Amino acid sequence: MAAAKIKKGDKVVVLSGKDKGKHGEVVKSMPKEGKVVVAGVNIAVRHRKPSQANPQGGLERSEAPMHVSKVALEDPKTGKPTRVRFEERDGKKVRVAVKSGELING
C-alpha cells in the first residue's frame, strides 16, 4: 500500500463542490474508501424524530465524508493548495509541498 498523502490532522483546502475554497483540518481519514472527513466542511443535515436518547428531536448536523480528490493539502508557507511529493531526508521518508518545497509535518 502506498503512503498516505493526506492524513488525520492535516490542514486541507477544498477544491470542488459546495464548500470550494474552504479550509479545514482532517478529522478522519478512510484510505480504503478513499475518503476524508474535514472539520466544518460538507455538513449533512438529518431530520431526527424524537426518541428516548434525544427527546427533543429536530435537525442533526454532522460532517459527511468527502472524496480525497476533492481536497488538497494546504501549503505551510502560503496557505494555498499544493500537491505532495515524497522525499528521503536523513533516512526518513517525508512529505514535501511541491509548490514551496516546504516540509509537511507528520
How many β-strands, per DSSP?
A: 11
Cα distance, first to last residue?
18 Å
How would a crystallographer describe the biggest sheet? 6 strands, antiparallel
Give start-end ranges of low-pLDDT stretches.
none
Provide the residue-averaged pLDDT: 91
Portion in beta strands: over 45%
Overall SS class = mainly beta
Write out the strand line-up for the largest beta sheet, numbering strands in chain order.
6-3-2-1-7-8
Outline: elongated
The quaternary structure here is: single chain
H/E topology pattern: EEEEEEEEEEE
Rg, alpha carbons: 17 Å
Summarize the amount of helix as a percent range. Answer: under 10%
Number of distinct helices: 0
Supply the key terms:
106 residues; 47% strand; mainly beta; 0% helix; six-stranded antiparallel sheet
Please, could you describe this protein's structure?
The protein has strands spanning 11-14, 23-30, 35-38, 43-48, 58-63, 66-67, 71-74, 81-82, 84-89, 92-97, 103-104. By secondary structure, the chain is mainly β. The strands form 3 sheets. A 6-stranded antiparallel beta sheet has the order 6-3-2-1-7-8, with no helix packed on it. β1 (11-14) and β2 (23-30) form a beta hairpin.
Topology:
Blueprint: E1 11-14, E2 23-30, E3 35-38, E4 43-48, E5 58-63, E6 66-67, E7 71-74, E8 81-82, E9 84-89, E10 92-97, E11 103-104
Summarize the structure.
The chain is mainly β. It is 0% helix and 47% strand.
